[in-house]
Amino acid sequence: MAAPALERPTTPSGTQTVTIAKALNMGLRASLERDPKVLIMGEDVGKLGGVFRITDGLQKDFGEHRVLDTPLAESGIIGTAIGLAIRGYRPVCEIQFDGFIFPGFDQIISQLAKLHYRSQGKVKVPIVIRVPFGGGIGAVEHHSESPESLFAHIAGLKVVSCSNPVDAYWMLQQAIECDDPVLFFEPKRRYYEKAELDTSIDPLPLLSSRVVRPGSAVTVAAYGPMVRTCLDAATAAAEDGLDLEVVDLRALSPLDLGPVFESVRRTGRLVLVSEAPSEASVTSEIASRVQQECFYSLEAPVLRATGFDTPYPPSKLEEGFLPDLDRVLDVVDRSLAY
């Protein structure tokens, strides 16, 4: 089901400079104000305001009955949210770190993803599961995972990822308004990067990709934390006279590949970038689809700059694991060499 058009929030409109973290907080606040059935639940989301302070101040302003601190039990959080959703609520669950989601994996794939289909459309489960994901913060094991491909594979779930404050603000509200369950992946290492947010401008549809930097030489597509890396790579490439087009995928399931197809038909080349390992991933699905739809336009194979097919390394080694500007440009050079 597509998310309905959002009503304007009661928060003041206009342009302001905010971080992704602040934009997410503003989006949650707007949703809580708009609909009394919206609830926030998770570990330390109330009094503490979340480990990244995304829910800061919300329990104080909306009460413990709407912003609920839960036990350390992801399966219990998601299972309780399913029961609340069946009763007409719109729970927003926070998973503290990406690697903590797996105790709730069974609830998500066996129950949450199936209920609407199993009930022949009679039961709706409008649940958002917020997941801070990816590396780059020097964390310990289980705190830097990129599990998005696992959920993108599951029919019945929508999977999206924001990369900037504007999308963080609007996409989170759109996800909460959606009647289907949404996995909302937030790039934790980008939480405190700033950009201009104009709340008076109409947002893009939730399940859509977009070109964030036009170019003509090579198409570079990414999502979440890697969009900034690709934009930086495009800036560096421009100094050498190379014009890269950057596409922010935004929605990982279902994929909106129209802008990617259109771009590849113009450039003839595609480089895909993600922190997640490459095998059986979102990037491998996109590579397959582009080869199928744009075969006669391609001047080179679809290439990828991704995390390696290994467990996430200790923090001292993560700089070598994560794709950076140089690795992206190296793959671009390989594409142009064909």
From TrEMBL:
One of its GO terms (molecular function) is oxidoreductase activity. It comes from the Bacteria. Its cofactor is thiamine diphosphate. Residues 18-193 form the Transketolase-like pyrimidine-binding domain. CDD domains: TPP_PYR_E1-PDHc-beta_like (cd07036). Keywords: Oxidoreductase, Thiamine pyrophosphate. Pfam families: Transket_pyr, Transketolase_C. Gene3D superfamilies: 3.40.50.920, 3.40.50.970. This is Alpha-ketoacid dehydrogenase subunit beta. It comes from Saccharopolyspora terrae. The lineage of its organism: Bacteria, Bacillati, Actinomycetota, Actinomycetes, Pseudonocardiales.
